[in-house]
Amino acid sequence: MEDAHTTLLKLGADGESAFFAVYDGHGGQAAAKFAGAELHNFVIKDENYTSGKFEEAIKAGYLTADGVLRENPDMTNDSSGCTAVSVLLTRDGRAFCGNAGDSRCIISNDGKAEPLSHDHKPTDDVEFNRIVSGGGFVEFGRVNGNLALSRAIGDYEFKNNRTLPAEKQIVTANPDVVECTLTSAHEFLVIACDGIWDCMSNEQVVQFVHAKVVEGKKLDQICEDMMDRCLASESELGGVGCDNMTVIIVALLNGRTEAEWYEHVKAVAEASGQKSSPKIDRPSADADMHDDSNAIINAIISRASHNADDDDADVATSDSSPHLSDAAPHVDTHADVADAPAADIPAHDQASSQKSAEAGKDDLANSPKPAEASKGDLANSPKPAEADKGDQKAAPEN
Questions:
Q1: Distances in whole angstroms, Cα of residue 233 to Cα of each of 173, 230, 313, 322
Q2: 390 pLDDT more than 60
Q3: Which stretches does UniProt call biased (Low complexity) (predicted)?
Q4: Residues 281-336 pLDDT 10s
């Protein structure tokens, strides 16, 4: 399993923010594992974070993580890399989405999908120009005919021009950061790797979540159902639906109880006519070949990780948060309930899932006391509002 993820309902010494991220690995698991365990630490340790300059802190955190990983002796002959899409929810009701690569984050605003990230593909004009200026080329929609995305942590073979800063390398870890002021109209965030977005559009994902809430499903089950919808029936043939998949759903409670949140989302779904799952026309197995031939989904836990028998399951832990367990970065099938964030930060409840043919479990978070819950998590977030940045057109992947 080359994917990793982070779900922290309380980030920092005072639990003043929350942090969620997905890291889609390729060429090995080292980069994704490192990012999942450490990237958020570099963000909160940056001086800009303390002064409330969150966009600058996120950018610095990404680049610092990339630089520190590169200095690790174990990376000398390691060719792994990973995407990094993250959301930082702050005390004052803002969401900051940082993105490097082609994983994606969207927010549902009164039933409509709004992108908070922009896919970084080699054929995009900005990306293409940087690649060429850095000494690379784009062939078959790939960097140097090889890499299907143009920003990543790791992938150091594309970062060897010593005359250029990190932001101008052929492939860079420098993220785009989008700020969104949260309002009561925002219902939930969906953060996922391209294994999901290759199969479903932004609008289809929002419609899918709404339809499943109308059916009475909880977030944990919705994550699993989404994986099942995207998984190819014959994964050994490769193609769309055969990539690793990771998804996190963060419910923005906005002062509502968990039950009230589900009723609110159900009402929005019914008002917008999103009461049935969208039809998804997926290309045939040989229409879009991927490097990964296995579709893997493990469960993600709300904000804690536990040891498990399944060595393929993974979740990031952090020593920086006293609310995380000290367990190794592996997920088991037990649910964990998170405490509500401190002070005036509303609780954030999220469900997240990574899946293979077996399907793992998720968990729920929205309680001031640890308790057993089913798969899936909820989050009471500050107030959301608009998002900028449009969707990035997908480049051909051969």
A1: 34, 9, 21, 42
A2: no
A3: 315-328, 338-351
A4: 544 333 332 332 222 222 232 222 222 233 332 333 222 222 222 222 222 222 22
DSSP 8-state assignment for residue 371: -
H helices present in the chain, as ranges? 30-45, 47-50, 54-71, 125-133, 194-197, 202-214, 219-230, 258-271
348 bridge partner residues? 379
Q: What digits encode the pLDDT tens for the residues 16-37? A: 899 999 999 999 999 999 999 9
pTM over 0.85: no
Report the pLDDT averaged over residues 167-174: 98
Q: HSE of 165 in the Cβ direction (CA atoms, 13 Å)?
A: 4
**Of 154, 189, 192, 380, the residue nearest 300 (C-alpha):** 192
Query: Other C-beta atoms within 10 Å of 281: how many?
Result: 6
In angstroms, what CA-CA distances link 156 with 8, 36, 218, 337, 375?
A: 28, 18, 41, 38, 37
CA atoms of 358 and 65, how far apart (whole Å): 33
Task: Please provide residue 117's backbone torsions phi and psi, each rounded to the nearest 5 degrees.
Answer: -140, 170
**Beta strands at 299-300 and 176-181: parallel, antiparallel or unpaired:** unpaired
Q: Which long-range contacts (CB under 8 A, 24 or more apart) does 223-226 make?
A: 223/247, 223/248, 223/249, 223/300, 223/351, 223/352, 223/353, 223/362, 223/375, 223/376, 224/297, 224/353, 224/355, 224/359, 224/360, 224/362, 224/375, 226/196, 226/200, 226/353
In whole angstroms, what is the distance from residue 152 CA to residue 173 CA? 5
- Residue 214, Cα to own-chain centre: how many angstroms? 25
What is the spatial distance between Cα 35 and Cα 153, in angstroms, rounded to a whole number? 8
d(CA 288, CA 240): 6
DSSP 287-311: GS--S-----B-EE-SS-----S-T
Report how far residue 302's alpha carbon sits from residue 325's, in angstroms, rounded to the nearest whole number. 12
Whether 196 contacts 247, CB under 8 Å: yes
> Which residue shows structure tokens 């992108």?
115
Confidence category of residue 201, pLDDT binned at 50, 70, 90: very high
Tokens for 123, please give them.
């054929």
